[in-house]
Design goal:
The chain is of the alpha/beta class and 307 residues long. Helix content is 34%, strand content 26%. Bound molecules: acetyl coenzyme *A (ACO).
């Protein structure tokens, strides 16, 4: 059996924090943030909102759009770097919220977490172990940010996205590719519960690595860049996204961009972008979609799929 996406969902907190709002918090400007990152605003959760509560809302949306029942889900994977607590896992909290009786676990691969989760789910489906996997990317980065550090607090936002991946005879996930290289761990980490990033150095490695990842993904499948209908990249920085689009000779019209409105929601960014483009009708049945991400670890990966 193949693994096919049969439903998508998303949730963004109602509260919006604009670049102008940030000008009153740190020494920054709307112009600087837009020019360097493409970000105009981000969503920030209310104090009562948690990673699991956002994951629950995105999951309900995804299960509804998949037109299945909660009982049909036989595996739950949550990609997050901002779990509600060390344990129980956010996936177990979600499982209880949804009253689903299925194994549930978290995956932590920073901004690449959703790609890792898709790759794991694909293998569970291909081996016949699972039939309907709920895969969620959910993050509450507002808790992790040092709101006095202008080099990081302007970059991130909160939210959750979800998909249901199901066993189907027709083509779905064509291939998935996951990687890690721990030698760069000090360029982007969380110490004393706050993010530290050498942004410029991360930027260079991200652009080079994503370029090689595109080659690897296409070569593995004997495909040409012209076979790709849509790029749905991790949303860290519009300049990184544009470099990836250029590598694929894609115009920005074939790239799903949400970084301007969501900022970087880490593991949630790809499922949120995918959900948006599926629901507004841009992504259509049978199109070939490339998902790709890069994040702390470093970790990076791609999923090529037929929608
Ligand atoms: N407002 C105004 N000035 C700022 C701000 C700000 N918010 N932040 C930094 N600056 C200043 C710096 O102090 C520096 O000033 P200086 O020249 O006087 O020293 C100047 O702007 C340039 O700083 P750089 O860090 O070199 O700026 P750069 O163009 O590299 O942009 C950015 C920074 C946006 C962070 C970029 O490097 C980037 O996007 N990096 C990659 C991020 C990424 O992909 N991370 C991986 C995923 S995240 C994850 O896994 C959790």
């Amino acid at each position: 059996m193949n693994s096919k996406i049969i439903g998508t969902g998303g949730y963004l907190p109602a509260k919006v924090l604009t670049n102008k709002d940030l000008e009153t918090i740190v020494d920054t400007t709307d112009d600087w943030i837009i020019e360097r990152t493409g970000i105009q605003q981000r969503h920030i959760s209310e104090p009562g909102e948690t990673t699991s509560s956002m994951a629950t809302k995105a999951s309900i949306d995804a299960i509804k759009s998949a037109n299945i029942n909660n009982d049909d889900i036989d595996l739950i994977i949550v990609a997050t770097t901002t779990p509600d607590m060390v344990f129980p896992s956010t996936a177990c909290i979600l499982q209880n919220n949804l009253k689903i009786k299925a194994p549930a676990f978290d995956v932590q691969a920073a901004c690449t977490g959703f790609i890792y989760a898709m790759s794991i789910a694909d293998n569970y489906i291909r081996t016949g172990t699972s039939k309907n996997v709920l895969i969620v990317g959910a993050e509450k980065y507002s808790n992790l940010l040092d709101w006095s550090d202008r080099s990081t607090c302007v970059l991130f936002g909160d939210g959750a996205g979800a998909v249901v991946l199901s066993a189907k005879p027709e083509e779905g996930i064509i291939s998935s590719h996951i990687h890690a290289d721990g030698q760069y761990n000090d360029l982007l980490d969380v110490k004393n519960e706050q993010i530290r990033m050498k942004g410029n150095e991360v930027f260079k490695v991200a652009v080079n690595t994503l370029s090689k990842l595109v080659d690897e993904t296409l070569e593995k499948n004997n495909m040409d860049k012209s076979d790709i209908d849509w790029l749905v990249p991790h949303q860290a920085n519009l300049r990184i996204i544009k470099a990836a689009a250029k590598k694929l000779s894609l115009s920005l019209d074939q790239v799903v961009v949400t970084v301007d409105r969501h900022a970087n929601t880490s593991a949630a960014s790809i499922p949120l972008a995918l959900n948006e483009a599926v629901k507004d009708g841009r992504i259509k049945d049978d199109q070939v979609i490339l998902l790709e991400a890069f994040g702390s670890g470093f970790t990076w990966g791609s999923v090529l799929l037929r929608y």
